[in-house]
Amino acid sequence: MAEKDVIIGLEVHVQLNKLNSKLFCGCSTDYHDSPPNTHTCPVCLGLPGTLPVVNRRAVEYAIRVALALNCEIQGETLFYRKNYYYPDLPKAFQITQYDFPLGLGGHILIRGEDGEEKNIRITRVHMEEDPGRLVHAGTIDRAKYTMVDYNRCGMPLLEVVTEPDLRSPKEARSFLDKLRNILEYLEVFDGDLEGAMRIDSNISLVGGERAEVKNISSHKGVEKALAYEITRQRSARRRGVAQVQETRHYDELRGITVTIRTKEEAHDYRYFPEPDLVPMRIADWVPRVRAELPELPDAKRERFVAEYGIADDHAKSLTSEIRVANFYEDVARRSPPRLAAVWIADVLKGELNYRDVAVDGFRTDHMVEILDMIGKGKITEKGAVEVIRTILDQGGDPAAVVAARGLARAEDDAVLEAVRAAVEECGQAVADYRAGNEKAINFIVGMVMKKTRGRADPGEANRLVKEALDGRGGA
Amino acid sequence: MLRELKERLGAGASAEEMVSALFSKIKKSKLNAYSNLSEDSALERAREFDKTPWTGLLAGVPIAIKSSISTEGIETNCSSRILSGYIPPYDATVIERLKGEGAIIVGKTNMDEFAMGTSTETSYFGPTRNPWDLDRVPGGSSGGSAAAVAAGEAPCALGSDTGGSIRCPASFCGIVGLKPTYGIVSRYGLVSYANSLEQIGPLTLSVEDAALVMEVIAGHDPKDSTSVKSDGGYLSGLNEGVQGLVCGVPKEYFGEGVDPEVEKAVWGAISRLEELGASWREISLPHTRYALAAYYIIAMSEASSNLARFDGLRYGLRLGADQDWHSTFSEIRAAGFGPEVKRRILLGTYALSAGYYGRYYLKALKVRTLIKQDFERALSAGGADVLVTPTMPFPAFKIGERIEDPLSLYMADVFTVPINLAGVPAISIPCGFAEGLPIGLQIIGRHFDEASVLRAARAYEEATPYHETVPKEVV
C-alpha cells in the first residue's frame, strides 16, 4: 500500500549491549536476568559527588556504527546535559550529545514500498546514557504507583535519527530491519535482548502537523503503532480536526497512542556542555576503526554473488541476517554453493521463520550432510524437506532421521525390479502408451512409486519406465 | 605544625589522648564549626594507631573534612536540610588518599549550604562563628573547616573552593588556605556546586602543612576525567626562598572598595617580599570587572543542573505521605533548600533557558576565556612569576550584617572568583590584623605551578609572626 501522503522520520535508540560495562561507570551490562537494582553503583545511581568517566570502547563502537551508516565522523565530540525531572533519571539530567554529535549526514539503502531499493538519509548518530526503567502498576495513565529499576541506568545508547524519508509503516519496519542487520554485523548489538531497540517516531500527513510517538519498544511494534497513528490522523482530518504538534505515548497493550503533551507544554531541556567530561578528539580514532570494520550486508551480498555464483535474490536473503550469512558460508565451503544457497534461502529460512527459531537452532554439519545426500541422490527433495522439519521439531541427525522414517531413496535394483513388475502388471497402460498415448506412462510410474513406497525418485522412475517400454532398458 | 605533631606521635605520644582532647574541645566550643563528628571511628582508629603505629605522610594526624566531601559511613549533608541524614556508601578519592597516608577523620565541618555563600551563614545548621570575634562570620563557604583549624579544633582540614571558599575563610580566620590548579586534585566525591570551577584544597596553620596535605591529595584520578597528573614536589622546594621572584601586583585589585587597613597590610607584605629578594611590578588584569558577573552566571547555571538530583526519592529528606511525582519532589525541594540555594537554582535555570543561553551562559564562557588570558599574559614567561593581592577586600564582617543583601555578599568575592575562572592556583596566608581581625594575602601562580606559590608563601610566613598568633577567644 503506497501512502504518498505519509511522512515518517525515526529516532532509534539502540543499546550497545555487547559492551561489558556501562557508558560512564564500571557496572556490568548483563542485567537482563537480574533482580531490580542489582547492577548499580554510586556513579550510575547519580549519588552526590560522583563523576562520569567515558567508556572508550563504547565510543569506538559508536564510531563503528556511524561509519557503517555512512556518516561523517566529527573531529571533536562533546557530551551535553539534557536537564529534566523524572524518577528514572537519578541525576535529573541525561548525559547525551547535542552540538558536535559523533556522526552527521549518513544514509542506508532499504527495500522501499514499491520493492525497489531506496536511500534513507541519516541525520545524525549520537551517544547517550539510558535512563532507568519505570515499571507501572498497570498502564501509564492509570497506574496507582510506579517502581524504578536502575539496572538499565547508564547503559550505552546510540540514537540514530533519520530524515523524514519514510513513507509507510512498512518502510519504517524495513529501515529498522536493515539497521538491526547492520548493527549485528558490527557485533555491537544483540537485537534479541529486551529493550535493545526502542523507537520514537515523528509522523504526519502531508499538510498537517506532526505527532511524535514515543515508547515503541521493538522494531516489530513499529508497524502497528504507526498504522494506528496514520489511521487516527486520517480520521481526525476527515472529521475536520487539525493535528496539533504533540507528543504521544504508544500503549503497546492496547495498541493505541495517547497524547502526553502538546507543543506549548514542551520541555526546555536547558542543554549545556557536561562540565565533568572533556571534549574528545575522535578524528584520530577513525582510520583504525574504519580499517577494522567488518564486511557489511550490501558488500557481503555482492561478494556472495561473485564468489559463489548464486542468484542476487538468494544472496540478499542470505545476507539479511549475519547469523544466516555465516551459516551459509560455513555450509558453502563444504557443499556445492548454489545448492546450499537454494536450500538455505528457500527452504531452511522458511522453516526457521515458521517456527520462530534462529538459525543457530540448526547445525551446519547437518545441512552439509543433507546437501550431500541430495547431491548423491540418496534422498529425494521431498525427503530432504522432511529431514529438515523432523530435525527442527524432534531433533536427531540426518542419517538417523532418514533411517527411522525410511526416507532413503530406493536402491537401483529395487527400483528396476519395481519397474519390471509394474510394466508386467499394467498391460492396458503399456498398450495405450505404445498406441501413442504418452500420458499412460504416468499410471505405470505411479505403480512404481507405490511399489517402492515412494522411495524412488519420480523423475528417475519415469526414465526407467520409458527405457523399459522403448526397449532400450533391461526389461 | 603537623611536623611537630607527627614527631610527638613518633616519640610515643598517644593518638587516642590527642583525639579525645580534640573532641572535648570541640564539644565545649561555641563556634559551631562541625556539623557532625565521627567520634567512635576516630577514637577506634587512634587506639589502633597507638597499638600498632602505621607510617604515612599523615600517620595518626586528625583531620576535619568539609561536609561537601563524601565520606563512607559518615553523614555528608552539605549543611542542607535536603541532605540531612545522607550517609555516602563510598569515599571521595581525597578521603581514600588521606586514609591511605594514615590520617584520622574527626568529623564534617559546617559550611554555607551547598557551598553557596561567603560567610557560612546559609548553613541549615546555623552559622559558624569566627574564633577571633564570636560575633563575626568565619568567611565561607568552608567556614567550619577554617574556624576549626584556627581555633585548634583540628590540626588541619579540607575545604573546597569554587569562587574563594577556601581562601576567604582562611583569610577571615587568619590561617593558610590553598586552592590548587583546576584538575590537580580529584573532585570525585565532592558534591558538585559548580564543577568547572571548584577544587578541593587544604586549610592549615602553616604553608608547610598545606604543602604536606597537597602531597597526599594531589594527583591524577581515573575517576575524574578533568583531573591531571601531578608532579608532586610540593614540599621539596618549599624553603628555596624568593630571590629573583617577580611579583605582579594587579592594579585592579586595589583602590575603591578595599578597606585601607587591608590595602596597607598587603603593601606591607609586598615590601617584605622585596626585602627577601623578590621584585614587584604593577600589572593589569583588564577584564577583572566582568569576573563577578561571569562567575555567578556559570556557577549558578551549573548548580541549577547539579542540584536537580535532590528529589528525596533515593536519599535525603522525605516528607510525610507521597503524592504524585511532581508534587512530591516539588514539596521536598521547597522544604529542603534554603533561600540562597533556591535563588541560585532559579537564576541558573533562567540563564540556561532557551533564548537566554546565548545571552548569559555563552557570554559568560567568553568572558571566562578573556579572564584566563589576562592571567596567562600577566604570568607569561618574562612577566610575573606570581601575583600578589588581597584575598578579601575587608576583614570578617558581623554575623547578619550582609546576609539580607546578597549582592553585597557576592561583591566580597571580587578578588577570589577570577582565580577560579582562570583555573590557576592561589593561596591565602595571614599578613596582618585590622582591629584584631586577620587579613589575608593572596598569592596567585601559573597553572600547575603550586611550587612557586608555596615557596613565596613560605618565605613570607617565615619572615612574619602572623601565622603564630592565636585567637584569644579560644585558648
Brief sketch in words of this structure:
The complex is a heterodimer of chains A (475) and B (475). Chain A has 475 residues and is of the alpha+beta class.
Strand tally of chain B:
11
**Strand order across the biggest sheet of chain A?**
2-6-7-10-1-11-12-13-14
Proportion in β-strands of chain A? 15-25%
Share of helical residues of chain A: 25-40%
CATH superfamily of chain B: Amidase signature (AS) domain
Report the average pLDDT across residues of chain B: 96
pLDDT < 50 stretches of chain A: none
Question: What would you say this structure looks like, in words?
Answer:
The complex is a heterodimer of chains A (475) and B (475). Chain A has 15 helices and 16 strands. Chain A folds into three domains: 6-289, no CATH class; 295-405, no CATH class; 412-470, Arc Repressor Mutant, subunit A, CATH 1.10.10. In chain A, strands 2-6-7-10-1-11-12-13-14 form a nine-stranded mixed β-sheet. A three-stranded antiparallel β-sheet of chain A has the order 5-4-15, with no helix packed on it. In chain A, strands 3-16 form a two-stranded antiparallel ribbon. Chain A is elongated, with a radius of gyration of 30 Å. Chain A has helices spanning 56-68, 169-185, 221-238, 286-291, 297-308, 312-319, 322-332, 337-355, 364-375, 381-394, 398-405, 412-425, 427-434, 440-451, 458-470, and strands spanning 6-15, 72-73, 76-77, 80-83, 93-96, 103-111, 117-129, 133-136, 146-149, 156-162, 197-205, 211-216, 246-251, 256-262, 272-273, 280-281. With 475 residues, chain A is α+β, with helices and mostly antiparallel strands. Chain B has 475 residues and is of the alpha/beta class. Chain B has a single domain (1-475), classed as Amidase signature (AS) enzymes. Chain B has 15 helices and eleven strands. In chain B, strands 1-3-2-4-6-5-10-11-9-7-8 form an eleven-stranded mixed β-sheet, with helices on both faces. In chain B, helix 7 packs antiparallel against helix 15 and helix 9 crosses helix 12. The radius of gyration of chain B is 21 Å and the shape is globular. Chain B starts with a helix and ends in a 13-residue tail after the last helix. Chains A and B meet through loops of A and helix 9 and helix 10 of B.
